[in-house]
Amino acid sequence: MSTVVGAVIITRHGDRQGFYQSPTSYTASDTAITPLGEVQEYQSGQALQQRYLNSSSSTYIQGISWPLPKLAQLDVRADSSEGQVIVNSATAFMQGMWPANVYSNNTLANGTTITSPLGGFLYVPVETVEASEDISLEGYTDCPAFTANTKAVYASEAFKARGDIAEDFLASLAPIVNRNISFENMWNIFDYMNVEYIHDADFYNSTSLATMQQARDLANYHEHAVFTDPELDGIGNIAFHTLLGPILDGFERIENTTVGLKMMYLGCAYKPFLSLFNMTEVSNPNIVDYASVAVLEVHNSTAGDLTLKLAFRNGSSTTTDGSDLVATPMWGEDDGTSLEDFRTKLSPYAITDLGVWCNKCENKVSRGCDLIEIANASTRTADVTSTTGAQRTSPLVAGVIGAIIAFGTSILPPLPVPSTPFSSRRR
Length: 427
Known about the structure:
The chain has 3 domains: about 5-140 and about 235-350, Phosphoglycerate mutase-like (Rossmann fold, 3-Layer(aba) Sandwich); about 145-225, no CATH class; about 355-410, no CATH class. The protein is globular. α1 crosses α2 (about 85-95) and α13 crosses α14. β3 and β4 form a beta hairpin. The chain is about 40% helix and about 10% strand. The protein has helices at about 35-50, 85-95, 115-120, 145-155, 155-175, 185-200, 200-205, 210-225, 240-255, 270-280, 340-345, 355-360, 370-380, 395-410; strands spanning about 5-10, 75-80, 105, 115, 125-130, 265-270, 295-300, 305-315, 325, 335-340. The strands form 2 sheets. Strands 1, 2, 5, 6, 7, 8, 9 and 10 form an 8-stranded mixed sheet that branches. A two-stranded antiparallel ribbon has the order 3-4. By secondary structure, it is α/β, with parallel strands linked by helices. It has 14 helices and 10 strands.
């Protein structure tokens, strides 16, 4: 009999308005969460509260605080791209997990008891992870090597053959889809249809379920081809390479009982799920739906060994107690994977160093890689291509860059100075 001592929760955002992303670089436009998306995330938080915060549950996280959260036990992060839709999803999720309650109060010296606004609303901080400051939740954008690989996928015989089969179907969509009609643009075609099918009554009534399913099947093939790779270190897996950084950090802090972390929440898009399943040999080649959840549960056996079990739910909650999360064996190991084995198998592919990411992505011009290039060009005696910490610029790089800027400003007219990347996250 094992007990759960911690969990890393990976979630996709809830329902949102339409948006567009480049079919090669995957740079995305902004969008906004919908009331439906907020409800999906809120209900998801409620369900996981019953699964992990209810002391009578078999998957209760031992020692986690409820109904009032202890912030030292939590680490909640959300990708701030796409117009804050992922951040707002995280906020709604946390409202479901730690709802307003009368225990959020204090008694003043004069004996008056004050309850927090909105019936005891609880403010669980969400760290917004800026792509310009941190690579962990969005390692695939501004990554020229990933873009080149995506173009290579599109040029492959298998991809072109699938596109040829879909040609007539795609042509039939032209009258109803306000997107460029090509198999390379299949994600945007499907996303447009999916948003309209959910929110536009005319589109819903005039488009068959079979048409929607065929579009989804093609989008599944398309995105699986882009965000997976037959080689574990292949650039197609970059979305999970960078996400592994905070995941492994979370496990370490859960394992170290003096730190006290009980739960890490990582809010992201659908892309890391595809790479996660590919790298852990989980047979799920499809795009996960809105509000999907993958939980890496850390179990402590009676022998004292730590084991990981993956619980997955595709889409929004269908139960109120989290029982719709399905045990999903990694590497075919039904009884779970030891934490040490997980580290051994995957830590070599975790990208936690900005310099490594810049080299792998062949990026020299953005996301801090430009500053590393400046530092490299200005020194012959120091190794400045490595960074430390959670994808932030190292003190060495920052110091060298600072010296360059200080020297440059003493002899040149004032120039715009880029802010140092990876130095902070915003709450």
